[in-house]
Q: What sequence folds into this?
């Protein structure tokens, strides 16, 4: 068996994994290596993986339990594989804001997987941010203030709602509820690594339990700016058949919307998570 090579792409987080063919059945050792690489690097990338929806699902099942996305229906025969796309005439991209996926659910996903099917000739990169580092860089006083506070996550914040409008119009679920709301700690402890991570995001965190909007807004504004500082981030340049897998419990991501007039089509699978603690 050819050994897998791991190449980090930035100081903060992110690594490319080479020497593995995801169209083939993975050995138990390969599955463990990939899982360990994800926990260590928070987001991992593969190149040249021309996967069918079934092959994509098979790989996803080695990492977790695929689940359906609440607002967009899946591909025919594959309800857990959704198409994330921006078409030539569209100006707004899906999820085009810094965020951690669907934190407005009681049990947000542990991870997400994105496979490039069609990419623009330039642009359309994705940024990722390390939320362990964001937490660890805060002062002891700020850490004491935040630890124990509970955030209010909503699916209906205006800035992120508009990034879903085109896809809901074309691919929306008839049964999709209008809004989701959930309460989660502002600082969560990763269930596998035991490390603390900042767990707020500008797309979904709408307030703090027990605080007025006037009290919570400046604190959240500071955190939203702090947690995506350049030194906490990496940037991934997509190629056809590239695949990204990120740990939603300790990262945020932001797809850059800089390719107007071109088509970008990806397949996405979401993996079930646990209740943040």
A:
């Amino acid at each position: 068996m050819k050994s897998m090579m791991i190449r980090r792409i930035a100081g903060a987080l992110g690594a490319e994994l080479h020497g593995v063919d995801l169209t083939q059945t993975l050995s138990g050792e390969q599955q463990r290596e990939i899982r360990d690489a994800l926990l260590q690097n928070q987001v991992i990338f593969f190149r040249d993986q021309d996967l069918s929806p079934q092959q994509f699902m098979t790989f996803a099942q080695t990492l977790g339990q695929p689940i359906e996305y609440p607002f967009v229906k899946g591909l025919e025969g594959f309800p857990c594989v959704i198409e994330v796309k921006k078409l030539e005439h569209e100006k707004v991209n899906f999820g085009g804001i810094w965020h951690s996926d669907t934190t407005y659910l009681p049990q947000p996903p542990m991870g997400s997987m994105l496979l490039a099917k069609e990419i623009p000739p330039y642009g359309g990169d994705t940024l990722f941010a390390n939320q362990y580092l964001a937490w660890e860089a805060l002062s002891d006083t700020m850490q004491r203030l935040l630890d124990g506070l509970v955030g209010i996550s909503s699916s209906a914040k205006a800035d992120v709602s508009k990034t879903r409008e085109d896809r809901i119009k074309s691919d929306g679920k008839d049964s999709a509820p209008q809004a989701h709301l959930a309460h989660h700690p502002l600082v969560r402890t990763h269930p596998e690594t035991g490390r603390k991570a900042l767990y707020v995001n500008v797309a979904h965190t709408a307030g703090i339990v027990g605080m007025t909007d006037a009290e919570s807004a400046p604190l959240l504004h500071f955190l939203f700016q702090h947690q995506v500082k350049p030194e906490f981030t990496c940037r991934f340049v997509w190629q056809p058949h590239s695949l990204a897998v990120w740990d939603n419990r300790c990262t945020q991501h932001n797809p850059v919307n800089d390719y107007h007039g071109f088509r970008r089509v990806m397949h996405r699978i979401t993996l079930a998570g646990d209740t943040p603690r």
Observations:
- The chain has a mean pLDDT of 93.
